[in-house]
């Protein structure tokens, strides 16, 4: 319920009603990392105590550089489980009994404290870049914040975003960001044009803003999908042998993932280009 799953919290709370929601543990395909020992905390504040018996853990210290709200990281040498410091940010490295050796999970976490001698972690985001064309660098977290900002414009029409993903379109010159939305119902043309502009302006990374102003990156495109598109994407991944419990909606579609791009393309019903930086 954290990281890339956080956008579903609002909907989950709606359907759960008075039932308490608990994020029990922090795991990955490569192995279990931690357990939630404070289940009464709000999900936005949940932490996980590392389970030292599940593998050998190391942590790469990351110095966070904020550039107009975009996040970049400078690395230091890895430290051990008991050498991490409260308040600092790290990337998780795991060595497992199954044979993985010093495997970088790509997960960014923050140490919030210790339970006995094991650190408690708060999951921040995935480290991998989501969107980049020129000198711009926008992470999964940047994309999520942009979508949340634009989604506020849907409130007046009592609509919500079922799910979303993104793609970098480089076949045109200049390249541009493409954001895909599946909505709960139809929205007006004016609202969707406003959403396209809002998305474009919500990416506040200095590299992106500068590139947009000098036309090194083209106008952001918002594509609206047929209802049921992300269910089709889920079915595609399951047909490849994936497990439902391990599926996460891809927030960035790699150009090599031709099948998913085909699903998105044939299910696109409307398209809107941002005019936020002029035509």
From TrEMBL:
<dbReference type="Pfam" id="PF23572">
    <property type="entry name" value="GH3_C"/>
</dbReference>
<feature type="domain" description="GH3 middle">
    <location>
        <begin position="48"/>
        <end position="126"/>
    </location>
</feature>
<keyword id="KW-0436">Ligase</keyword>
<protein>
    <recommendedName>
        <fullName>Jasmonic acid-amido synthetase JAR1</fullName>
    </recommendedName>
</protein>
<dbReference type="InterPro" id="IPR055377">
    <property type="entry name" value="GH3_M"/>
</dbReference>
<feature type="domain" description="GH3 C-terminal">
    <location>
        <begin position="141"/>
        <end position="254"/>
    </location>
</feature>
<dbReference type="InterPro" id="IPR004993">
    <property type="entry name" value="GH3"/>
</dbReference>
<dbReference type="GO" id="GO:0016874">
    <property type="term" value="F:ligase activity"/>
</dbReference>
<dbReference type="Pfam" id="PF23571">
    <property type="entry name" value="GH3_M"/>
</dbReference>
<comment type="similarity">
    <text>Belongs to the IAA-amido conjugating enzyme family.</text>
</comment>
<dbReference type="InterPro" id="IPR055378">
    <property type="entry name" value="GH3_C"/>
</dbReference>
